[in-house]
Specification:
Layout lengths: L4 H10 L8 H17 L14 H6 L20 E3 L3 E2 L5 E4 L12 H16 L20 E4 L4 E5 L5 E6 L2 E2 L2 H7 L15 E4 L5 H17 L1 E3 L2 E4 L2 E4 H17 L2 H8 L1 H4 L6 H9 L3 E5 L4 H12 L16 E4 L14 E3 L6 E2 L11 E3 L3 H8 L6 E5 L2 H10 L3 E5 L3 H28 L14 H17 L9 E2 L2 E2 L1 H9 L2 E3 L13 E2 L7 H11 L17
Parallel strand pairs: 3-12, 3-17, 12-13, 13-16, 17-18, 18-21
Antiparallel strand pairs: 1-21, 2-22, 4-5, 4-8, 5-6, 6-7, 9-10, 10-11, 14-15, 14-16, 19-20
Helix pairs in contact: 1-2, 4-6, 4-7, 4-8, 6-7, 14-15
Length: about 550
Amino acid sequence: MAETPRKLLDRRRLGSDAGVGSPAMSREASTVERLSDLLVPSMSLEGLSFPPSQAELDSYVDVPIAALPKQYKRDNMTRVFVNRDLDLGRMEFFGFDMDYTLAVYKSPEYEAMTYDLLTRRLVDIGYPASILELRYDPTFPLRGLCVDNKLGNLLKLDEFGAILQVVHGRTPLDTAQIEDAYPNRYISPSDLGHGRYAVYDTLFAMPEACLYADLVRHFESSMGHTEDGIVAENFAISFEALHTDVRAAVDHVHAAGALKKATVAELDRFVEPQPRLAELLNRLRAQAKVFLLTNSDFAYTNTLMDWLLRASYTAAQPNWRAFFDIVIVSARKPAFFSAGTALREVDVESGAVKLQRIRALEPGRVYQGGSLEEFAKLTGARGSRVLYVGDHIFGDVVKSKRQGWRTLLVIRELEDERESWTRQLGSYTHLVNLQFILAEVYRGLDASATVPPDVKPVQEALRKCLKQMHDETGTTFGSAFRTGSRKSFFSQQVEQFADLYSASFANLLSYPLFYLFRAADQIMPHEITAYERSSAPESARVDGGAGASASP
């Protein structure tokens, strides 16, 4: 029986023909080449090489979107998530912050210790000793919360500034109370970060947020209070003044060295080991220059980095500085990214600052201060060829991003988010079903309809489902990234300013250094509808009615 062209090609690929170099092999090879030309239009996904050749791509026949296999993704705990395309192979500089990036502080031990230092400082300046009994609660604060220091409230906002939750002290406000305090249920993002509204956007700020709320509850439970403060016979303080005092206490424990002293005294207790740090730094240095840019002073940086890297010392790398091409301490970010400060060299033996002019940033040496402009001038670093890794969404990511650096934001909470989503999966499935049901209620209704359907039962079921999802997080404010199907303000900041984000800097080791990070397609609601109609079977297609929303 004569073979079909496809069978001949398949047999040829399997190597079942005559031996290599035989006349039969030569004759059949030419036949196969001609048959391949005829079969070019039928190249399938299964037949592709990976990576495919140009000829294969030219002859490839697209598979319908709904029929494509699930795209390969790394495990969430080792994955780097992508907001904007980034080619690692183009990076000429890799920069790292230290605190909460390379030096990851153990939670909640570190926050609890910071919280206790803050209460002691407040007692030192005249606050009642009773506040020493307060304790840090790791289930309460959340990155991205906003404090209203006029009314003493903590607010969780959505990506546009709409108010999702309000807590006064530790008491959540109901809908009527929220609308009474904030009639528009909206805070303009341009008002955040100064004046009445401050944002807790770093892990360093979690003890501060918790303490502020605890002090409001503590004083109001035993004293009288007004709309804007606490009043008693021998004690009176506004919520704004309370916020100012707590903020000053935070600055004091940092500047006076109490926090650093307590950390250094028990590194094993407060700092996570990083067994793969040396491996990552050395791999990056094989391709590009690696620098450390931290706000911490030299003494503290020297102690922590030595502790993190000591086990990896060799004759060629006898100290932690040998793992970096450039080291800058006391950088004063975010000022570093604008006017900056004077650039000086630090004597690594004495810690003293040298005053001579800096003409180059040399390996093995340590520098203090400086600015982005001076850094670029001395190193030749071009903004788009620098990837900076940090944890501070404003000091590390927003400011550096605006100067052209590419950014990777370290978000430790991603580890908790995965566990939280596992708990919420059943409730989220129910939420999507309820949204489908609500959309079906409005199927086919247009402007000629005069009797509105009774959707109160569905709306109430949606409300209960959202509350269930919130309760399943086991925290006061729920997820840092969303409430139900609505993204949080923190989520919007991450999307807007971080090119990449991940739970740990070490997750870069999960990718080759020539890897091209590609962002997911950004699809608008009207485009989602077009996709659903083109890729889903007819029985699965629905019209989006009032109250329907696309799943995240």
